[in-house]
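Hi everyone, sorry if this is the wrong subforum. Our group has a chain we'd like a structural model of before ordering constructs, and none of us has done structure prediction before. Sequence below.
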Amino acid sequence: METTKLTAFAQAVGADIKEVKQSVSTKVETSAMTQAISQAVTQAKTEVKAEILGEGTPENLDTLKEIAEKITSMGNDAGGALLGKITEVSGRVDQIADLDLVATYNAAKA
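Answer:
Right subforum, don't worry. Here is the predicted structure as tokens:
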């Protein structure tokens, strides 16, 4: 009995099974990677939010919308004072952003 064709068929089936297993393995790894990325993004968002709002922020003031509503409800005097302070800090941040720290550092070294 000639077994060449049967052997070739078995090898082809084996190659296909190997390819399917590799494909499934890749998809499982991709799914796990997607889940890990999603968890990392969620954790990063939580950390940034905590850094911006600070520790111990009440839950009713944990979004910018809630903070803005609270400022509005405080009245014009408090809101105006707070807005003035925010504008002042913003100006300072702009000044710092415009500094050439490398030039200042190099000048101090010289």
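For your construct planning: The two ends are 92 Å apart (CA to CA). The chain has four helices and no strands.
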